[in-house]
């Protein structure tokens, strides 16, 4: 924006305001702030005089401290930031770091807890599914055994095999009565 007499007046007023807030004296007036070497690029230096002595300038350390203390108000008056409104020899103030509304450790704890709960639920559900599958297979096997029918081969009925107990072949059974002793 254009730097004109009104902007200069606002700057002088903000510096006078900063000096009054810093020194707790109401002696600093707008006329005590002098701008020198104003350029088209809005570059200048300024001096603050002491109104009680009328000629003496206020020490630079006091002016620096006053501006540092009220820097935010000066920046807001011109709708600028520390990057756009620079005071030489006065370090810019760093804004305090932004703190989230919830602590970081609480977020990490919540994520870990959710993963643990999801793992437990997965294990329970998979265990239930395996148990159901096992029960289903055993009932199917029992149903197959019950449904075994007597088959006929060459017109002669054959015995149904007992799948649970197995089938004993009588030829190889050891009968002591059938063999002669030596």
How many angstroms does the end-to-end distance come to? 129 Å
Residues in helices, as a percent range: 40-55%
Which band does the percent of strand residues land in?
Answer: 5-15%
Give, in order, the helices and strands.
HEEHHHEE
Number of helices: 4
- Name the average pLDDT: 77
Label the structural class: mainly alpha
Radius of gyration, whole Å = 49 Å
**How do the strands of the widest beta sheet line up side by side?**
1-2
Poorly predicted sequence stretches spanning 5 or more consecutive residues: none
What features would you describe in this structure?
With 182 residues, the chain is mainly α. It has a domain at 5-78. It has helices spanning 5-23, 60-69, 71-77, 104-146; strands at residues 33-36, 45-48, 152-153, 156-157. Strands 1-2 form a two-stranded antiparallel ribbon. The longest helix has 43 residues, at 104-146. The termini are far apart. The relative contact order is 0.07. It comes from Calcarius ornatus. Residues 1-182 form the Collectrin-like domain. Keywords: Cell membrane, Glycoprotein, Membrane, Phosphoprotein, Signal, Transmembrane, Transmembrane helix.
């Amino acid at each position: 924006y254009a730097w004109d007499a009104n902007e200069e007046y606002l700057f002088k007023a903000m510096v006078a305001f900063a000096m009054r807030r810093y020194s707790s004296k109401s002696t600093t007036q707008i006329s005590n702030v002098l701008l020198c070497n104003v350029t088209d690029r809005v570059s200048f230096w300024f001096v603050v005089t002491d109104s009680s002595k009328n000629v003496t300038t206020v020490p630079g350390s006091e002016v620096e401290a006053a501006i540092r203390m009220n820097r935010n108000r000066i920046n807001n008056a011109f709708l600028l930031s520390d990057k756009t409104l620079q005071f030489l020899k006065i370090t810019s103030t760093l804004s305090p770091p932004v703190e989230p509304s919830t602590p970081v450790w609480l977020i990490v704890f919540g994520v870990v807890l959710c993963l643990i709960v999801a793992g437990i639920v997965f294990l329970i559900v998979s265990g239930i599914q395996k148990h159901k599958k096992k029960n289903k297979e055993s009932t199917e096997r029992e149903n197959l055994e019950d449904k075994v029918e007597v088959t006929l081969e060459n017109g002669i009925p054959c015995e149904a095999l007992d799948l649970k107990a197995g089938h004993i072949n009588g030829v190889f059974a050891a009968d002591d009565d059938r063999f002669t002793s030596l």
